[in-house]
Amino acid sequence: MAAAKLAALIITLLAFVGSVACQGSGILCLGGWVRPVPILGRLACPGGLIPSPTVFRRPRAAPSGAGLKVGYYNSCPNAEDIVRKVVKDAVDKEPGMGAGLIRLFFHDCFVRGCDASVLLVNSSGSSADAEMFGPPNKESLRGFGVIDAAKSALEAACPNTVSCADTLAFAARDASSVLSNGRVSFAMPAGRLDGRVSLAAETSDLLPGPFSDLDTLKSRFAAKGLDTNDMVTLSGAHTIGHARCMFVSAGLNGTLAGELRQKCGGAGSGNSTVNQDYKTPYVLDSQYFQNVKDKAVLFDSDAALSSAETAALVDTYAADVGNKWESEFAAAMVKMGNIDVKTSPGPDAEIRKKCSIYN
User: Fold this and answer.
1) Which residues of 208-226 are buried (b: 16+ CB within 10 A; e: fewer)?
2) CA 226 → CA 112, 207, 237, 264, 295, distances in Å?
């Protein structure tokens, strides 16, 4: 617990120290969640952090999603409509909540698979902090209340039937639809069960961070069975939501950098936030990819997509002929939703009655 709190404190206080663009620096601090800073003429990790090892995990086969299917809840035929209404009401009231739900789904699937472990406040078999308190998630993730509201409505209609993992998957799908004005529309297979283990210590080394370079991004997606195209496609979700100032890259174009300096203020404003997409901040669209081309993205991990290896796909998505990005984003969301799903009841898989607490 102490280590997780220290890591979160380091992110809050030191991540934004020094305006250093770290692409190609070879330094990865707290798994890409803390900005390297110049110390004695070279880049190092602040606060005495030991640089994270560069681990290139062996690519896995694409997640099959075996056991999932569209229209899974025949015994609760209104399940998806129930979630859809709760999500639409929440996003209509606060568009940023939709971005939070999509991110919540991503952060769930990349740690222990899509099993709603990110929603747990504690873990079975451990007194350690849960995922929601890990450095990438603490005081950053949002949407928990929306999931709780949807789950409560589902329990009233169909007790002990719909898992929290599927509730979150449906919510991310529905948020995508609302924020894109229906251009991102897809069927989400279901049948996931909820996990019982959730560990903050696993988050930093599995979730790609805002200071990750291209090789790290590719490695972390490949470790989940997602290829480079999937990585570029899913990065497009950064066209919505907010970014904390401490994570903003130094490699922005001059005009946008000047505007952000005014909005973010000095070093003490690291927890202040700015729109991820300065042109269409409340619409899930392909504008993000034009921003990549214009050096108008906020994270080093976003800027990394301008590399030779990924530039052609960025160009294609920026043109967005025939809503190409929207359709491929939908497919990538389904593929991500297949990661390490639990579909057989057992000691580590259940349908929770309440999403924040295992049964």
Assistant:
1) bbbbbbbebbbbbbbbbbb
2) 15, 13, 16, 34, 25
d(CA 87, CA 214): 33
The DSSP result for 315-340, as a single string, is HHHHH-GGGHHHHHHHHHHHHHTTTT
Distance CA 56, CA 280 (A): 35
Q: Is 242 a catalytic residue?
A: no
Which residues make Cβ contacts (< 8 Å) with residue 9, sequence separation at least 6? none
CA 277 to CA 6: how far, in whole Å? Answer: 31
71 is in an annotated binding site: no
- Is 129 assigned to a binding site? no
Question: Is 285 part of any known ligand binding site?
Answer: yes
- Name residue, tokens 């034009």: 290
Catalytic residue among 35, 84, 107, 173: 107
Q: What is the pTM of this model?
A: 0.90
What is the full DSSP assignment across 173-238?
Answer: HHHHHHHTTTSS-----B---B-S---GGGTTTTSPPTT--HHHHHHHHHTTT--HHHHHHHHGGG
Q: Is 227 annotated as a binding residue?
A: no
Contact 271/242 with Cβ under 8 angstroms? Answer: no
Q: Look at the block and give the residue holding tokens 């921003």.
A: 291
17 among annotated binding-site residues: no
- Name the DSSP class of 261: H
Residue pLDDT, tens place only, 310-353 = 999 999 999 989 999 999 999 999 999 999 999 999 999 999 99
